[in-house]
Design a protein that fits this description.
By secondary structure, this protein is an alpha/beta fold. The protein has two domains: 144 residues, Rossmann fold (3-Layer(aba) Sandwich); 180 residues, Rossmann fold (3-Layer(aba) Sandwich), CATH 3.40.50.2000. The chain has 14 helices and 14 strands. The strands form four sheets. It has a six-stranded parallel sheet, with helices on both faces. The longest helix is centred in the last third of the chain and has 18 residues. The chain is globular, with a radius of gyration of 21 Å.
Length: 378
């Protein structure tokens, strides 16, 4: 079987590009005849259609990418299988998705979200995102590269590092984590909280608000916002350098950093909702804070990126869940336990590593994809 994988290729250091690239690499490593193309490049895609003649075109994106990863290959008579992330709602291309013989989603929660919005493809199958378990591995605290990361982040000897990674800290639950940390006082050893966020215009305002919250909580000298652009090469060492990974995300269709942290042998703090019900095991690999608040929206203003004219208003009836807020009190309790108990951190991290290797190794994901395609030949 020949497979063409469409994603943001070559990959930038982000979730969807990495998801696509790991699938492509996994297919090659298990012996599948596969090629990769940029989902936006019609010229490149058509070139592959003509000489490679794929049996299946697997496209990675969200529902707004349907024209690039479903409609375009179909125009050339090819079988398109989308692997779609949700962003809280589906607002367009519902007729196309509802008629799909096979649609892949990264978590059961995404499948439930699509069904809520009226998308009932003939078969929706959960295919988790892969993790590079050869690169994301536990590392010794005295590893020179790990020590260099901690020094670069300003983590002093004797300090415990709590880490959050995301486009902005707030979307990954960083504000709830800061509120929790501020409440701990002297009940825990010295700590430093680092938020690795990406430098992008759409999150600049939110990042500034988060900096202001740290100041208002009186912990600005212990919180660091790293907004530098980094490659994927740094990420395994960044995660290996932390003592606790805090990712009680407000909206999460899979949670790649949480899984990668587990692969690095780190305990995770998440939220008891969404994809983390799939990827994390409460009390074993992670602590899942209860949902304290559910945020609903009545509509959204969308534009060309979603297949609408600029300024198009979409009304949700009934209102859709926009995101969740984890309990800061729960997070504080779990941070207190983890920061004061190195043995607990080690045990939960080891369990997390075992779970990721068993369920989320990118070659395992590639094998699962091939089994799904074989089971669904239509």
């Amino acid at each position: 079987m020949k497979i063409l994988v469409l994603y943001h290729h070559p990959p930038a250091p982000g979730g969807l590009p990495t998801q696509g690239d790991l699938l492509y690499r996994g297919l090659l490593e298990i012996g599948v005849d596969a090629c990769a193309a940029n989902l936006r490049s019609d010229l490149e895609k058509e070139w592959y259609y003509r000489w490679f003649q794929p049996d299946v075109v697997v496209g990675i994106g969200f529902w707004g990418d349907v024209p690039d990863i479903v409609l375009h290959p179909r125009r050339f008579g090819l079988r398109a299988v989308p692997w779609l992330l949700a962003d809280g709602y589906v607002a367009n291309y519902r007729d196309v998705l509802d008629g799909m013989p096979l649609m892949l989603v990264p978590s059961d929660w995404v499948c439930e979200t699509f069904a809520r919005d009226g998308i009932r493809a003939a078969r929706s199958v959960t295919l988790p995102v892969g993790c590079d378990t050869d690169g994301f591995i536990p590392r010794q605290p005295d590893d020179p590269k790990v020590l260099a990361v901690r020094e670069t982040l300003g983590v002093c000897a004797g300090e415990l590092l709590v880490l959050t990674v995301g486009g902005d800290a707030a979307s990954k639950g960083g504000r709830e984590v800061m509120e929790a940390l501020a409440s701990l006082g002297d009940a825990v050893p010295p700590w430093r909280y680092v938020c690795k966020v990406w430098p992008q215009p759409r999150t600049a305002v939110q990042n500034q608000l988060d900096v202001e919250l740290a100041a208002a909580l009186g912990i600005e000298d212990r919180v660091c916002f790293q907004t530098h652009l980094v490659s994927r090469n740094l990420m395994p060492y960044l995660l290996a350098a932390c003592d606790v990974y805090a990712g009680p995300s407000r909206l999460e269709g899979f949670g790649m950093p949480q899984v990668e942290a587990g692969a690095c042998g780190k305990p995770v703090i998440g939220i008891r909702a969404m994809a983390m019900l799939d990827t994390l095991v409460h009390g074993e690999t992670a602590f899942l804070a209860e949902v304290a608040e559910t945020i609903h929206i009545n509509g959204a203003v969308l534009g060309p990126e979603a297949g609408f004219e600029a300024g198009h208003q979409v009304v949700f009836d009934p209102p859709r869940v926009a995101d969740y807020r984890a309990s800061s009190q729960d997070i504080a309790g779990y941070l207190r336990r983890l920061l004061t108990d190195p043995g607990l951190r080690q045990r939960m991290g080891a369990a997390g590593r075992r779970r990721v290797v068993e369920h989320y190794d990118y070659r395992q994901v590639a094998r699962r994809l091939m089994a799904i395609l074989t089971e669904n030949p239509g």
